[in-house]
Every structure is written in structure tokens, then in C-alpha cells.
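Ticket #4471: structure export looks truncated?
Reporter: QA, pipeline team
Priority: medium

Steps to reproduce: submit the single chain below to the structure queue and open the exported record.
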Amino acid sequence: MSRGLPIVLGMIALLTWRPAAADDAIITARNGTDVAEHMESIGFGDIRERPELLRAVPRFWVPKVPEVEVADWSEDVQLRKSVFIRLGISAALQANAKILADRERMLAIDLDDMPSEDRAWLERLKKRYKVPGPVTRGAVAELKLRVDAVPVSLAVTQAAIESGWLQSRFARQGQAVFGQWTTSETGIKALENDVRLATFDNPHDSLDAYMHNLNTHGSYKPFRLARAEMRADGKPLDGYALAVHMEPYAQTGEHYVEQIRGIIARENLRAADTAVLADGPRYVYIHQPEEEPQTQIARKPDKAPAQAETFQHPQAVEQPLPLPPQIYRKTQAGWGGQPKRQWWPPVQQWGQTAPNPSAPNAQAWPGRMPQFYSGWR
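Actual output as written to the record:
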């Protein structure tokens, strides 16, 4: 029998960059299964099997990655990938929409007849994207290279690699999905060395920072030039092709590029590069932890029942209450047994020494520390 989906819908005014007329639908979910069931209920199934659904991708929002490990997310690989990919595509499309809105306004400005308001806006945009000097045609030409979208397939795949499909300690404790370094004391320290990773208020801020990194850091200039060539040729952005320029993101270099491309091909993500964000409400998933299994203690009564003089009550023992089927399936080791965890990717593939985080400009390292999360726990 299918479990009931604990969904609480509420409508609140949206306080982000989108029009105030739009509304949020608040969804409470205990685990990945609940999220998947809600997605199915609105007609957005597994896009790897139904890529036609990418013509209208709903707006999903995760205010916070749960700090606690969620059983089905840890154990059910296919569920984890399916939900992660759908959430990631939606998040990348929303992040790109903000960038493309700035790009559209920038391209519409007439530099020969530019109002002071537009000039001031370009100054702020130039500062944000780290373009030096005054507002000139050369500066705007550089902005055209930088203020542009990141291919959805590339963003989703790197998020999966860097966060272990949202299982890493850094993702759960610091909302750090892309493993960006920091010298700030507020960063989360790795267990094996002194490297710290930047923390964020939510995973979407981590995504914004990742895209800004690709659009501004000098190590990714080849990526930006290749992206501009695709634009000039009228081609859609291709994450599989542009992945070749992600070597600086990890010391594993070419192997890292091969890993990105392998996931894009295996999970059928190339179609995501032409996905379209749908109109409609933004679905906000709020995690509601599952209740812990309780125990029931049968105690010997003070007196035997009056009409059952021969009744002998057993000694008081702890008797675990029957667990729900979905929990019992996860604890095949026995009552209270701990399910086995399968960490991904294998630790033994990695272990290179990271650059010294205390060196000058260490915070400008173009990517992440060159180990996967499973080696940092």
C-alpha cells in the first residue's frame, strides 16, 4: 500500500527577484521519496526516461540541505540520482535566468546614447563581474563574455561530483555544493588538513557562487571564449563540449573532464542544456525529520487480575514496536541494526595534496580541493 504523502500547501508572497505576483507552494517532505512523489503528482517524472518533460521544468527550491542523513537518500541510488537531477536542472535554470536577465538588459543599452541610469547600472555590473576601468566598448565586450549562462548539464554534473549527490558533510553542514575554498574562519575545516570550504545560507547561493566563479576567474577564460563562439554560431550551449575547459577545477585534470562527460552521457543530461523553465508557482521543499522508532516496555502489574488467578505475567522486557515497512526494509541487520552505507565516489581514487590554503590569494583557487567529500569526512 502506498504511503500517504505529507504535503502541506501554503501560499506566500515571493520575496526574490521574480515578480511579486508569483506565489510559493510550501511542501513538507520527510525524505527523498516524499519529494519524488510530489514531483510525480505534478506530472514531472524522471527526465532521464522522459526527456520531453524538459520543455516545461517546474521551479523547485530547497532552502536547506538536511544536516541529518536521510535513510532513503543514502541507500537508494536511483532515487537519489533521479530527484537530485530534477532539483538540479530546475535550480540551474533559475540561476541562469537571473544572469540572462542582466545580459538582456546589457545588450539593449545603446553606448552612443546612454542615460546616466544605464551607465550607473553598467558600472555596478562591471564591478560585480570584475572588469576593470571605465565603461567603454572594450569593457562591455568583456562583459558580454562574462555575463552569460552556464550549461545546465555541466552545473548539475559538477554539483553531483562535488557534493556526492548531496551526501557530503560540507553540503549537509554548510550548504556547500561546489566545494569552493575560503580563508575565512567561518568556513568548514576538512578533517585531514587545514583547508576550509566556504559555507552558504542555502544550496542555491552555492550555485550562484559557482557560476560567478566560472564567469570571472582567469582560469576559465577559455571556457568563456568557447561559450561565446557557440553563441556567435547560433548554437545552444553544450555542457559536454565545454567540459573540456574544467581541468582547472580539480588537480585530476583530464580525468575530471572524463568524469564530467561520463556522468552527462550516462545520465542522459545533454538534453538538459535546452530545457525551459516553466511559469507557475515555485515549490519550496521543507525537510520534516521522520520520527524515531520508539520502544514499548511491558511491566509486571502490582496485583494479578482478579478473574485470572492462574495468570503469570512475564518479566518486564523491552519490546520494540513494529517499524513501518519502509524503515524495516532499510534495517535488514535486525531491530535497531544500522544499514550499510555505500560512499560514492570511492575514496581510493583520490588523495592528492591540496594547495596551501594559507598562501597568498589562496581564496582565488579556481575550483575545489582535489579530493572528493568521501575523503574529507
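Status: closed, not a bug. The export was complete when the record was re-opened. Leaving a note from the reviewer for reference: Residues 11-289+352-375 form one domain.
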